[in-house]
Amino acid sequence: MVDFSLNETDQKILEEVKKLAKATEKNSRYWDEHEEEVRHMGQKAPEAEAFSYIFDMMKDRDKKEGACSPMLYQMTQSMNQGLGDGLMSIMSGQRNWALGNASLQAAGTPEQQAKWGNTLLAMANTEPGCGSDSKAIETTAVLDGDEWVLNGEKIFVTTGILCQGVVVWATIDKSAGRGGIKSFVVMKGTPGFQLEKKEKKLGIRSSDTAAFVLKNCRIPRENLLGLDEEVKQKGGGGFKGLMRTFNMTRPMVSAGGIGNVNAAYDFVQEAMKKEGVEMNWEAGPLKRTSIQDKMIELESQIQAASLSTLRAAWLAEKGQPNNLESAMCKSKGGEISRTGAQLAIELLGALGITQDQLVEKAFRDARITDIYEGTGEINRLVVARAILGYTSEDLM
Ligand SMILES: Cc1cc2nc3c(=O)[nH]c(=O)nc-3n(C[C@H](O)[C@H](O)[C@H](O)COP(=O)(O)OP(=O)(O)OC[C@H]3O[C@@H](n4cnc5c(N)ncnc54)[C@H](O)[C@@H]3O)c2cc1C
Known about the structure:
Layout: H1 8-23, H2 27-34, H3 48-65, H4 69-82, H5 85-95, H6 99-107, H7 110-116, E1 121-124, E2 140-144, E3 147-158, E4 165-171, E5 181-187, E6 193-198, E7 209-220, H8 228-234, H9 239-274, H10 290-317, H11 323-348, H12 359-366, H13 376-388
Parallel strand pairs: 1-4
Antiparallel strand pairs: 2-3, 3-7, 4-5, 6-7
This protein binds flavin-adenine dinucleotide (FAD).
């Protein structure tokens, strides 16, 4: 039976996270303005101590009960409710977990997972000529003796500044299309692996986004995730394995977006209370105001996105296929994050766009949810393919 209720330990952890998010809410404005990578504040960050406490509780829990994705989902959601990208960055730094770590989990051998398990890894798929269509990757990897030689350009790499290494997607055989795409761990400091720039963005400004160039960048042969011999036998490090990365990360991204819109929604409710606007949830259709209609719609969309996200995370936790569910929840989470934040501003008027309040920031932070980890259009394509039993060649 599907049961999303939390046990006592999880409830306690979640309460701590919520308290932390609330207590440190004001810092998110500072991080936003300074575009500061929060982790660089290290132990000086006021949250560091509280975070260590939470992570100790989580480690303890993971040891006893096993890591739990729905729990992680709930955490992401409540974190974003307070701080969004800032708190997420601290989490990334403290837990050494970024997108590349999900790729490592999805496509690496057990030995590789042990070797880089505690290394903060970003993930670089996107290129100037390749975004939604991953098979358009131009970055090449050529085997030369016991080394791979990488050449190409990667853009929009989340945590690119903060990370210790990057999981780079490259093709070893362009004529093989998706089949030629593999992923390689490239550590910072490797000659030929150059950081080009840090993006200046609309939102999620304290989560860094970077661009890299790879020029005759030589890395050990065993840095190919899944290893080349194994790839031939099992396809472990191949494209399909890599795409499984998204089955884990899409629920997380959706959760972040839902947290963001929840924060804006909470603010709207508080503002209405202050203005003496009563929300009569029980009023029938003939008595409801237009504001009530909008709030009911918002509430129901948030609940629908939350439930579909919990389901995708629950399946991931159980080790069950969740390709359809993760794309579905990301599409819903992305949409409600974007439209919900827009609606919050509509309901608040000027209060929604002043920098004196955080709704303005939530609005800017929300937009990305429907872009990275597959845009809304791409996730709906994945959903359609899964329902119809089509391949990406059948429906693109
Ligand atoms: C802040 C930020 C962080 C990011 N982090 C990372 C990261 O860590 N690693 C990484 O590799 N990438 C990252 N990205 C890149 C992100 O994944 C891409 O921007 C995204 O996949 C879309 O690609 P694109 O921007 O090239 O748009 P395009 O693929 O060019 O798409 C443009 C538009 O066309 C639509 N579209 C495209 N194809 C179809 C289709 N077949 N059917 C219908 N509509 C379609 C899209 O939905 C979109 O609206 C990040 C981007 C941002 C902004």
